[in-house]
Amino acid sequence: MTNRTRGKGEGAVYRVPADKALPLEYWTASVELPARDGKRRRKVVRSKDKATVLRKLRALQRDLERTGDLPTASMTLEAWLHIWFEQIAVERVRPKTAATYQSLIVQHIIPAIGGVRLDKLEPAHVRRLRDAITAKGRAPSTALQAHRVLATALRDAEREGRVTRNVTTLVDAPRRGRVSLVTLDAAAGIRILDHASKDSVRMGSRWAMALLTGARQGECLGLELDRVTADRLDISWQLQRLTWSHGCNPPEPRRPRCGRIRGTDCPDRYLRAPADHEVRHISGGLWFTRPKSAAGWRTIPLVEPLRSIIERRLEVAASEPNPHGLVWTAPPKRDPYVETPRPLDGAPIDPAKDNYAWHQLLADVGVRDARLHDARHTTADLLLQAGVAEPVIMEILGQSTLSAMRGYLSRGNHTLLGDALSRISARLTTDVPPDAPELSAHA
Hints:
It is a single chain. The chain is of the alpha+beta class. The protein has four domains: 11-67, no CATH class; 77-170, DNA polymerase, domain 1, CATH 1.10.150.130; 186-365, Orthogonal Bundle (hpI Integrase, Chain A); 374-428. The protein is built from 14 helices and eight strands. The chain has helices at 50-67, 77-87, 95-113, 123-135, 140-159, 186-196, 203-213, 217-221, 306-317, 351-365, 374-385, 390-397, 402-406, 414-431; strands at 11-16, 26-36, 39-47, 232-235, 238-241, 279-283, 286-289, 298-301. A three-stranded antiparallel sheet has the order 1-2-3, with helices on one face. The relative contact order is 0.08.
């Protein structure tokens, strides 16, 4: 009999040991895989029961026919997540998104199920991740984010043939919790602007832009002098704090060669970002970046009273140190041991300090506390109350979809609802002839 090499997908089942006179240890099944670099490859499964090993063999053959190849050795989920993040995710998503991915992986996914082998992942493990996050008291949205990151990583593992299925597709994603949006009404907005006008040459004008245009925090802080004209604001860049990466080629995650823990302290630090992501370095960890969508890259008209407020700010900015050409720069730094504040140096405003200043402003004015981002919701509501059409509001706010813009409109706005119902009632009562018969209860 002539020996031959089995072709792709062909399988074999044999007993170990082969001598039937010896006690059975297990049955083995193997299936031939496509060769790589001229080397023969096989996928092997074992069981003490012959019927079981035959079922496993048929399952392998079906998977091989569907995917074209199978992994010969399985790594743990933790090992795959490190490979996936370093080689795939960071080349695909923006730096801020990559930082969120890394936080979810390190803080939640790996501690919960990182030790499980890829080929052993089951729907129960996905539910275990959800339960572990909620047990920590974290919001349902965190569980949903972690589920989505895991789903994306396993989708790529399936594409590469490392797993035969993405188990996250077999489990319902966690539901996002109900969020109550805080919207500052027109009266609160007027009080904020009135209080901010006392410092209109610096931060007052910054708050005026947020409330009167709905611009995001980064779009305000990253506004440059040369992108302001007599009648236009060019919002095509934004200021963001991004995370530096180690450039010293760490042999293992969290063990950099330079001996520094943070990437910002690495002598060879660099910003890891997709090739098509435009960035310009400002200083430290602050960067100019493009908006995340094409709709965010926009120009908006500069009208009164914001035009006069911005013009006063530009006059003052022209007389101050301004190495980065920004409309708003950081206020003078104060040393607790020195009465005279340090002179201005034209540094950009740190987003964290800007956020703190906003909450302090609301406390000083005496209005309910709200996130800085909620000022966009206020702008959307005020535009809608002024009768502005939704597509126009969407363009002003830089939203890419109508559904996203509608998420900025507050629910239960009784002023708008009452006005709409009043107009309908007036229309109906006006159109009904005076001598029209009344409708019966059974009509």
